[in-house]
Design brief:
Elements: E1 8-11, H1 21-32, H2 41-47, H3 52-63, H4 69-83, H5 93-102, E2 107-111, H6 115-121, H7 126-129, E3 134-137, H8 152-159, E4 170-174, H9 177-185, E5 189-192, E6 208-209
Parallel strand pairs: 1-2, 1-4, 2-3, 4-5, 5-6
Helix pairs in contact: 1-4
Length: 228
């Protein structure tokens, strides 16, 4: 299949490990509909993986909303506080992370969310997110100057492993087209688990496309296999 063996794994969070994408859609629509505008899948596909402020500015521009990013954020904050602490895991996420940790495979989180936002979303799953060797929060980390689709976040995540592996030895897990672009730009292989509503033409750059993390076979990339 042409896959190369890896030694380290880097994970996106929203839509890949946590089922938050529908919550974001609902929250954004709560605000945009105040101005008679609907935030649709067409818009969502363009901003998935962006840093929060960049995503909100893009929505404002696309829908021609008469508000600032700060106002948008202020209106979203109470909605986030209400819905994010209850978010669920995506299928296969816990099994895969526990498996990699058990076999001492270094793992990192590389999310476009800020640290505060991530803490809110992972409240229920702290035991799982504590498994990561380190976490890079693109939305608040000063070292992440450019968000996805730029490679910065994945290169920084790789560099922060104690053994500073070559990017080619890192396997990225992503759900968004922008995230896949970022991983490829970082010279890493990328496993994509896209939302079924995304058009297939955005999958073409991914190393491997899966319906679910449950379908991932670690041995395809030289990692210890699941034991039945």
């Amino acid at each position: 299949m042409g896959f190369h063996n890896v030694t380290h794994c880097i994970f996106d969070m929203d839509g890949l490990l946590l089922d938050t994408e529908s919550l974001y859609t609902m929250a954004y629509n709560c605000v945009t509909q105040e101005y008679g505008k609907t935030y649709s899948w067409e818009h969502k596909a363009k901003i998935m993986g962006f840093k929060s402020a960049e995503a909100l500015q893009k929505i404002i521009d696309m829908l021609q909303l008469p508000i600032t990013v700060q106002t948008f954020e202020d209106k979203l904050a109470p909605i986030y506080q209400e819905v994010f602490p209850g978010c669920d895991l995506m299928p296969g996420a816990e099994k895969l992370l526990q498996h990699l940790k058990k076999h001492n495979i270094p793992i990192a989180l590389a999310t476009s969310s800020s640290e505060d936002s991530s803490d809110l979303k992972t409240q229920k799953w702290k035991h799982l997110f504590d498994l990561f060797d380190h976490k890079v929060y693109g939305g608040s980390d000063p070292e992440v100057v450019k968000g996805k689709p730029h490679p910065d976040i994945f290169l920084i995540a790789a560099k922060r492993f104690p053994d500073n592996p070559d990017p080619s030895k890192c396997l990225v897990f992503e759900d968004s087209p922008n995230g896949v672009q970022a991983g490829i730009a970082a010279k890493m292989q990328v496993v994509m688990v896209p939302d079924p509503q995304l058009p297939e033409d955005v999958f073409k750059n991914a190393t491997l496309v899966l319906n679910s993390l449950e379908d991932f076979k670690p041995e395809d990339f030289g990692l210890p296999p699941f034991v039945a």
